[in-house]
Amino acid sequence: MANGQAEASPSTDKQFFGHPRGLATLFFTELWERFSYYGMRALLVLFMTAETMTNNPGLGFSVGKATAIYGLYTFFVYVLSLPGGWIADKLWGQRKTVFYGGCIIAAGHFTMAGPLVGLPDLFSFYGGLLLIVLGTGLLKPNVSSMVGDLYPEGGARRDAGFSIFYMGINLGAILGPFLCGIFGEGYNWHWGFSLAGFGMLLGLISYKYGDRYLGDAGHLKTGESEEVIAKRSRRFWSILSAIAAIIVIFASLAAAGAIHISLENLAAYLGYAAVAITIGFFGYIIFFGGHTTDEKKKLGVIFWLFILAALFWSGFEQAGSSLNLFAKDLTDRVIMGIEVPASTLQLINPTFIVIFAPIFGWLWTWLATRNSNPSIPVKFALGLFGLAGGFFVLSWGAANATAENPVTPAWLIVTYFLHTCGELCLSPVGLSSMTKLAPKGRVSQMMGIWFVAAALGNLFAGLLAGQLETLAPSSLFWSVALIVGGGGIVALLASPGVKKLMGDVE
């Protein structure tokens, strides 16, 4: 019972494109959260590299410093999904965790807009990024986990549900860069950041309004006593306080000049640490987690998909850095006498997603009825091939572009189309596969692992984009295409063995 009324069953209350009505609640919550995230992200590198003495002043950072900060920011946005998933599984439940995360995200965007009311630029900038990082770590893995809870029967219908959910993500990703880009890049950067905050507030309103349609999805289900949970909570806050103190001490020493480390090196070290921690985490749960042999095999599959996903995102997530800079510096953006902001070109990919996500969702279901649906590992290989194809195209376009003679946006449009095809083969399928493969009681943690892969990809994407200071864009894009394409070949060759380890999941 909730508010005196019986909750609808999510598996039978089909009112949203033939899917549970709760899917609409999560669809619109994620739409507005992604509006805020992608709207701000489209402005981030451009704001950091913009000159300080202009009508719309930025921070005046170098490309290397800006893309390193971008990589670190997006890394932490996703890596904190792992503790965010643990908090939901062990302390709060997904439903409560998502709401708190959204509140913190909104506070972060409004903090970034702080100079509008007289707050210092750098304080507002770094403080806002920190809040967004913390809030997204709480929200992102858990809203996706609740989508899986709406489909206890699993199967191709769950894949189709995730594809619809993914369309909501990308509707937000269209509106965010378009509106935030117009206000932020066109008038005042901080207006764009503020608009992103209002977007998150709309997401919170949508979430609370549709809460009654979620049934039991997202409630804490540890089966443990309140005393055990309270003890775990106290231990968690103690550890969190210690980590926060270490971070504050490190930042203070770095600001005072006692520690000398570049942002680029810090990003690289964090990447190595994240890889080591992830390997250690998988080793621990496989050998000491008390899982059956079948569960261990599926955990091994998750680890393999994690590697492929990290490779994919290391190329794909250059959209906000190197591809954004390519749009600004080497693309002719004048349409009918009006120069389109570079940030608005970020909406090309999500526009393609909205168009093709239903088609891909229908395609997987149609192929499944004919026993021809590609396996999850094959879909991952196809995703890598699509990404590699996009970078091959863009390297060709970049080879013919100069600041004096920029190329048409068609090169970016074709690139984003191929990237979209790759993304639709890998990303929604990857989200769904985490809920299928994860052992009971570790769904949110495995969803967190999925976002750790995105974190590593974002971090390395930022580091790769920093090479634009010394490397020609065509050479950078060609190198990425070769590496990702090689990964696709390996993934395809390994797919039969990986499918056997999955058992009857599909």
What topology emerges from the helices and strands here?
Elements: E1 14-16, E2 19-20, H1 21-49, H2 63-79, H3 81-92, H4 94-112, H5 121-149, H6 155-184, H7 189-209, H8 226-255, H9 263-288, H10 293-316, H11 322-330, E3 334-335, E4 338-339, H12 348-369, H13 376-399, H14 410-437, H15 443-465, H16 473-502
Antiparallel strand pairs: 1-2, 3-4
Helix pairs in contact: 1-2, 1-5, 1-6, 1-7, 2-5, 2-9, 2-15, 3-4, 3-5, 3-15, 4-5, 4-7, 5-15, 6-7, 6-12, 6-14, 9-10, 9-15, 10-13, 10-14, 10-15, 10-16, 12-14, 13-14, 13-16, 14-15
Account of the 3D structure:
There is one protein chain. The chain has 506 residues and is mainly α. It has one domain: Up-down Bundle (Growth Hormone, Chain: A). It has 16 helices and 4 strands. The protein has helices spanning 21-49, 63-79, 81-92, 94-112, 121-149, 155-184, 189-209, 226-255, 263-288, 293-316, 322-330, 348-369, 376-399, 410-437, 443-465, 473-502; strands spanning 14-16, 19-20, 334-335, 338-339. Strands 1-2 form a two-stranded antiparallel sheet. Mean pLDDT is 85; it is low at 1-8.
